[in-house]
Structures are given as structure tokens and as C-alpha cells.
Design a protein that fits this description.
- The structure is a single chain.
- This protein is mainly α and 550 residues long.
- The chain contains 21 helices and no strands.
- It has a domain of 93 residues.
- Helix 6 runs parallel beside helix 8, helix 10 packs antiparallel against helix 11 and helix 20 runs antiparallel to helix 21.
Amino acid sequence: MFLAIGVVALLLAAGYLLKLSFERNWITPVMRCAGGVAAGLAVGALGWRLEPRYRTYGAALTGAGAGIIYLSIWAAVRLYGVLPSAIGIVGLALVSVALAMIAYGIDVEALGVTAALGAFFAPVVLGRNQANADVLLLYLFFMAAGLGLVAARRRWRVTALVVAASYFGVGTLGAGDHAHPWGLLLYGVVGGTVGLYLGLREQWWETRLLTFSGGWTLLAAAGDRIPQHWAVLAAGLVLSAPIWWHALRRPQVSPLHLGPRGAGAGWSVGEAFYFFVTPVLLGWAVNGLDPRYFGPRPWLAPLLVGVAYALAGYLRPRPAFAAVGAAALGVAAVQRWEGVPQVWALLALAVLWASLDLALERTDGRWYGLLTLLAAIQQLLDGAAGVRGAADRAFVGAWALALWGSIGVTFAFAARLWRVEGAREDTRLIRAGLWTMAGALALFGVTGELKRFFELRTLDHATAHLASGLAVSAWWLLFAAALVGAGFRLSLQPARVAGLVVAGLAVLKVVLFDLSSLDALYRVGSVFLLALVALSLAYLYYRNDRSERA
């Protein structure tokens, strides 16, 4: 504590001395500034001499000496005007470089942070409004190259943070709108790529956050003024390379760690975020190649990105890349088609991912297929059903065919495409859910088509209502009997239970609705079907009970 107070007091004394000498005109401005530089060198030399014996004390004096020199150069430019801004900036940069070398030699990060702050804020405290933006970027680039190399070699996290924040902060605010776009593009891609690599390698979340966001921000700023949009895409690919390199080195995404990733498997949330956001940004860059061509075809950019990621994920087992490819191709299908064609496209993708799982003996594709199947069913019941016209016939119309396709794919998933792992209970539960979903689609899908069939026929409303009511009751009872029969034949208790549940629903419908609303003849038919199915079910249970006793 006393050491810090002494260093701050020494810097204040140097500042007051410069101010007092200016007010009383004791010596010329040049001599004042030169004397300040000499005093700073003396204090720094004393600290360098004491550092081997008194490490912290000597390093603090070295930093104080550098601070005195900073103040003297600032006074020479701002207070007295004896040096132009450009020479002052160069002087501060040289002091920062020297201090960084000392910090590297004695391995004291606090001096490295001081050097970084002095180097990057020199243009801020000494620059003019008319300063050349391109020269500023060049200056920041070389300062970051030297100081960043020191931080990387010594693994100084705070210094790397200061370098990244200053590189993109000062660069964006000071030159983002006025620098040459090609220079700005190169500045952003080089700084972002190197910073991302360092942040991912060392697990420094703040460094990779600044470099990732700063790099893409500068790419966007440069892309608005560069007619050659292919350059922005090429820069985006380079900026994505550290993300891909990290994903290839650690291919196992799960489990996600909320905090910093440890030595075990899995990614941190930040690592997963950068990986899954990168293809979205690449899609933006692809779309920028020719907005007039890609604009009317919004599906083309996700298609190109999806194919590239899917090939990377399936040529070798890389689940993270495969997941991005599956998602991007799903987005492309949604944007390319609407209504029933979209349902068929999503069903085809679902079958593709699950089939590749079986052919390549993988376990990740089934999840992509399951999510794609759910998206197809959601589109069938929501989007496509909402635009179904009166001309679309029941049972054989376009929507009905998509319904049968969805039921068939769901049954295929439940029977074969969804692989069950013996040690994982979740896979068994999902298979049971698939059977349930397939049965529900069949039960209620046929129910809806029966109602539509009678509604579209040339019958009056009352007759159509009576006929559809009887047909629905018959279908429910037959469906229940089929489930119970399949349950006995295949020894599947869940199927028998499901059949009894459906039969119970059918009984409630007959008792509560059919007997009160149907015409006499239809009422007789409904009750007769109920009796016939009930007797059949009783016979099945009786025969099964006798076979078990035998």
C-alpha cells in the first residue's frame, strides 16, 4: 500500500513541478521537458538496479520512471508545443516498447499493462482531429503486434485484454469511418484472427469476446465501402479459421460448462456460442457477394453454408459441424418452399440424417433427424393446414399425402431409424414417444380426413354430420381393436394399453355424443359397431388368457 502511495505521489510531484515551472517561467520549455525525461530515466534506472534484490519495489520505480517520461512528452506536445503531435506519439510509443521489453525481461505484468496503455492511448492524448486514419491503424497494428507477442509469450491475461480492447476500441472509434476500406478490412481480420486464436488457446473469454466481435464489426464496416464483396467473404473465412481449429481439436461439444471449461471433455458456453454464430455470419458474408442475386433467393446462402458444414461433419465424425450443416440445410428448405412442399423437404432431410446414422454407425444424426421430423410435423399441422383449400380432396389431396408421408416417416423412426442404446434410458423414452406420436397422427389424421370427406360431398349439412359421426366412431373402434390385436400378437403391453385407451374414448363418444345427436339408423349402427368391437376385444383377451394357462 505504501509503495503504491509513494509511486502516485512521485508522479504527482513530477506533474506539479512541470506545472510550477511553466507558471513561474524558471527555465525554458525545452529544458523543462528534457529535465522531466532525464528524471524519469533516473528513476527508471534506479528501479532496474533495485529489481534483482527488491522485485516489487524495483518494478514499481521502473513504472514510475516511465510515467514521468510519459508526462514530460505529453507536456512537450500539449502544454508547450515544442514537439509536433506525430513526434510525440512516436516518443510515447518508443517508451512503451522499451517498458514492454523491461516487463518481459523481469516478468512483471503490471509493467506490461502500463506499456500497453501508454502505447495505445498516445494517439488519444496527443493526436489531432485531422490525424490520418490510415497512419493511426498502421501505428495501432505495430503496437499490438509487439505488445500482443509479449502478452502471449508470458501468458499475461490482463495485458492481452488491454491490447485487444485498445486495438479494436481505438481503431474503431478513431479510424473506422475514415480509413481506407481495404486497410480497415486487413486490420480487422488480422487482429481478430490472432486474438481469437490466443483467446481460445488460453481460455481467456474476454479476449476472444473482444476480438470476435471487433473483427466482424470491422469486416462489416469495411464491406459497406468495398465493391469487391468476395474480399469480405475471404476475410470472414480467415476469421473463422481459429473457431474451426478449436472445434477440430476438441470435437466433443457436450457437456456444456457454464463457467470456464476445465480439463475434461466439452465446451464452455462461450466456445459453443462462437462456433454456432460463425456460420450465421458466414451466411451474411455469402449473401453480400451479390445482393441482387441472393436477395430473391434467401435459401441459397444457408444451402451453401449447410453443404460445406455437412461435408466437414460427415467425411469424418465431427458432430458439431454436422449439427450446423443439418440446421443450415433445414433453414434452406424452410426458406425455399412453403406449405406441403416444405413438409416433404423436411421429411426427406429427416430420413437422410437418420439413415446416415445407420450407414456410418453414428449416434448424432438421429437427433438432427428427430428435430427435422418435428419441424416437418409442425409445418404440416400449422402452416400447410392453414392454407389448405377446398379443392384439396380428402385422403388423396396434396395435404393428405403429406400427412401419410409424415405418419410413415414417424413409424419408420420408431421402428428402425431411431437407434436405441441399451444403457441410455432417454433413447428408449424417445422411441416410445415416437410410437405414440405416430399413432396419434394416424388416429386424428384419419379422423380429420373422414370429416372432410363427408363435408366435401354433395350432402346437406345434417346428413354429412351424421355420416361423419358414425364413420369416426367406427374408425376409433377399429383402431382400438387393431392396437389390442397387435399388442397380443407382438407381446407389447403398451400397445394393448393404448388400444384400451382409444376404445375407452370411443365408448365415451358413442355414449355421450352419438346416442344423443345421431339419427335413429346411425345410432343403431354406432351402437352395433361398439358391441361388435367390444365382443372382439373380449374374445382376444379370453383367448390370450387361455393360451397362457395352457
